[in-house]
Automatic annotation (TrEMBL):
It comes from Geodermatophilus nigrescens. It comes from the Bacteria. One of its GO terms (biological process) is phospholipid biosynthetic process. InterPro entries: CDP-OH_P_trans, CDP-OH_PTrfase_TM_dom, CDP_ALCOHOL_P_TRANSF_CS. GO terms for cellular component: membrane. Keywords: Membrane, Transferase, Transmembrane, Transmembrane helix. This is Phosphatidylglycerophosphate synthase. The chain crosses the membrane at residues 44-66, 72-97, 148-169, 190-212, 218-241. GO terms for molecular function: phosphotransferase activity, for other substituted phosphate groups. Belongs to the CDP-alcohol phosphatidyltransferase class-I family. The keyword DNA damage does not apply. The keyword Mitochondrion does not apply.
Amino acid sequence: MTAAVLPASGETVAATVRRLAGAQKGAQGAPAYSRFVNRPLGRVLAALAFHAGLTPNAVTAVSAVWTATGIALLALAPLGWATGAAVTACLVLGYALDSADGQLARLRGGGSPAGEWLDHVVDSAKIASIHLAVFLGLSRVESLGRGWLLVPLAFSVVAVVHFSATLLNEALRERHGVRTRAARSDTRPSVLRSLLVAPTDYGVLCLVFVLLGAPAVFLGAYGLLALGTAGYVVLALGRWYREMGALPR
């Protein structure tokens, strides 16, 4: 059993946040919301959890509860402005806690394989289910043409491929001893690239649900994210394949 790691004597939450800010993982390639909003918010939550004596796995579990609540509301509650606000709040908090668990692990001296496994399982569940919840929610809008229900189904496929390929890329690079640009401290993160890949950002998707009170407007914004993500994945798959082919045997 790993001994509990406690804050240094007299260290405030603000001081812990500053300490975390100096030990962030690379921002290269990170979309804008995740980089500029979610990580700083997760940093504060990680510091609060650290001072409360929570473990990273406990924070992952709390993140899963908030995310599951948002997805359940999206699938089952009547679509409207109140539902949209509640779904967005739940998903944004769940996503921030998803960032906090890894940052808390760094505060406590490093994560565990079981913790990393749990984090990825929770991420897989939300990526696969959130678009199915959109499908269920939109299916109750009588004025909506049935053909539009293909949008969340297609988005689900694209999101799962994107998530799975990203994990596989990281695993193969690590297995073959290749450092990514994000891992190299001499690489300056590109703000422009973070903005260009914003449509692929789960955090941006969370914010779009605030438009549920106007289903047609929501569907337009959601559809643009689907197209943007699909375009990114189509362009990236060829590059990723060539990169994997160039890895040392």
